[in-house]
Amino acid sequence: MATVSPSWACTLQLPRDPRSPGIGRATLRIVLDAHDLAPLVPTAELLAAELLTNAHLHTSGPYALRLRAVEGRRVRVGVWDSDPTVPKGFDDPGLMPPDMAESGRGLHLVRACADAWGAYRLCGDRGGKLLWAECQRDDLE
User: Fold this and answer.
1) In a domain, 4, yes or no
2) Residue 70 lies in a domain
3) Enclosing domain of residue 81
4) Packing angle of the helix pair 20-34, 41-58 (nearest 10 deg)
């Protein structure tokens, strides 16, 4: 008999500190393991690493990691930061960095490894944007 897992979400506020992306990845591993989603850790951790590092390198304030169950078999990895600008490599799938560029491929990697991805510009007191990517477990019925 199939069981339905309850929906869950986790948000981790991270300070502007070079250790924050690593703390976010460690938290992701613990949360996914606690929800019996350990098989998703390698892909979800890669998604989180790219999104968190991007937030750390290209914004000037704090950022947050948000993990959320989606339909029981999927997890959404989101990263909020205070800059409302969606990176060009994320909002334009056809845009690629020059062959010899030393950076700029991380968001293309996110798009290639994620089952779904997107971005939201946010308004209100905090503003900014949320970049997200989803991965799913295929071994569950």
Assistant:
1) no
2) yes
3) 9-95+102-136
4) 150
Neighbouring-strand partners of residue 11: 66
At 48, list the tokens: 């989180």
Q: Does any domain span residue 141? A: no
Q: 52-74 burial, b for 16+ CB within 10 Å, e for fewer?
A: bbbbbeebeebbbbbbbbbebbb
CATH of the domain at 116: 3.30.565.10
Whole-structure pTM value? 0.85
Max CA separation in the chain (angstroms): 53
Residue 64 to residue 81: CA distance in whole angstroms: 7
Q: Percent of the chain at pLDDT above 70?
A: 79
Number of domains in the chain: 1
Interval 65-117: pLDDT, tens: 999 999 868 999 999 999 998 887 676 666 665 565 555 567 778 888 999 99
